[in-house]
């Protein structure tokens, strides 16, 4: 009899706990469905759009909101001001400090009250950039805004060595882009699934150099068979790709920023095409300089450095540009 009674009590407790859990899940789901959209608005605001009007007193209480960057949940961002739209459906959280929109921001909304006085529970939502916009920003940033040659001054040895003719420059740019993408994706895979899980992050430079060397050797072998003329035109500069600062910088950047596969691909593609753009622009000018009346002391590398400096000044015009 006691055993039967214990079973009945256990079942009652189990059903009660399940009911509480299910009710919390339902309330949380209802609260999240009540929020239609959460997005950044400008540099200092987060806009929250509700499906129906909310209670004004509840909405203007800062204690009902907790905001932090997703990677740093312990650092709470202070809300300086809250504005509610006249229709009571849009809430604007204002911050004194500029928001780092490169990171998703988590907004915890406590005990949402509708205008009818109903408590819809607590919701957790995220404000982040449009993902396709983020990918495009990474791509354009690596290719133009933060061009590795004209803004970071990396890879100059190969840049000056292969930018004398357009044909060589374009071939080198395409080859470099292929090597860049292949080595970056292999580096990302090894970093995420080998180095990080086994706490071997300190070996990343050695591993990345090895992967770049492997990629360049493969391109060297294929190019020797497929296009011997282009292979001879590259000469020693194809081997110099192994020690190119750009091709080593990109895997380090994607590892440091914890990019996923798509973001890593866009960074590598942007860096490679940015190098191709830099080579093409430089080779176009240097071909014309061969026919120009350049003073003897400036012929060759000196005038090339002057032209590169002018291109760098032009590319500084992209600095500070923000896309999406």
Write up what this structure looks like.
The chain is elongated and about 85 Å long. It has 2 domains: 35-127, Immunoglobulin-like (Sandwich); 131-318, no CATH class. A hairpin with a 5-residue loop joins strand 4 and strand 5. It is built from 11 helices and 7 strands. The longest helix is centred in the N-terminal third of the chain and has 33 residues, at 2-34. It has helices spanning 2-34, 56-59, 131-145, 156-161, 166-195, 204-226, 228-234, 237-240, 245-256, 261-289, 301-315, and strands at 35-41, 45-50, 65-69, 81-84, 90-94, 105-109, 123-127. Helix 3 runs parallel beside helix 10, helix 5 (166-195) packs across helix 6 (204-226) and helix 5 runs parallel beside helix 9.
Share of helical residues = 40-55%
The low-confidence parts are 17-31
Largest sheet: 4 strands, antiparallel
Give the overall form.
elongated
Order of helices and strands: HEEHEEEEEHHHHHHHHH
The total beta strand count reads 7
What portion of residues belong to β-strands? 5-15%
Q: State the strand order across the main sheet.
A: 1-2-5-4
Radius of gyration: 28 Å
Number of helices: 11
Mean pLDDT, as a whole number?
Answer: 83
Overall tally of structural domains: 2
Terminus-to-terminus distance: 70 Å
What would you call the structural class? alpha+beta
């Amino acid at each position: 009899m006691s055993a039967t009674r214990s079973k009945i009590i256990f079942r009652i407790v189990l059903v009660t706990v399940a009911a509480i859990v299910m009710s919390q899940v339902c309330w949380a789901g209802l609260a999240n469905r009540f929020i239609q959209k959460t997005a950044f608005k400008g540099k200092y605001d987060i806009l929250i759009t509700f499906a129906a009007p909310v209670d004004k007193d509840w909405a203007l209480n800062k204690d009902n909101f907790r905001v932090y960057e997703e990677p740093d949940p312990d650092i709470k961002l202070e809300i300086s001001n809250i504005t509610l739209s006249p229709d009571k459906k849009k809430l604007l959280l204002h911050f004194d400090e500029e928001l780092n929109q490169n990171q998703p921001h988590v907004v915890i909304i406590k005990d949402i009250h509708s205008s009818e006085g109903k408590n819809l529970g607590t919701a957790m939502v995220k404000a982040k950039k449009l993902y396709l916009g983020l990918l495009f920003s990474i791509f354009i940033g690596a290719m133009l805004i933060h061009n590795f040659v004209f803004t970071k001054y990396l890879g100059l040895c190969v840049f000056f060595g292969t930018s004398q003719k357009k044909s060589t420059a374009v071939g080198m740019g395409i080859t470099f882009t292929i090597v860049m993408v292949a080595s970056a994706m292999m580096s990302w895979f090894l970093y995420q699934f080998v180095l990080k899980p086994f706490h071997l992050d300190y070996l990343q430079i050695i591993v990345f150099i090895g992967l770049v060397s492997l990629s360049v050797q493969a391109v060297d072998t294929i190019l020797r068979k497929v296009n011997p003329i282009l292979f001879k035109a590259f000469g020693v500069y194809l081997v110099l790709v192994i020690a190119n600062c750009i091709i080593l910088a990109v895997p380090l950047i994607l590892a440091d920023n914890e990019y996923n596969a798509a973001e890593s691909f866009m960074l590598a593609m942007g860096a490679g095409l940015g190098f191709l753009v830099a080579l093409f622009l430089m080779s176009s000018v240097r071909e014309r300089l061969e026919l120009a009346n350049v003073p003897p002391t400036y012929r060759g590398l000196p005038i090339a450095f002057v032209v590169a400096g002018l291109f760098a000044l032009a590319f500084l015009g992209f600095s500070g540009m923000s896309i999406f």
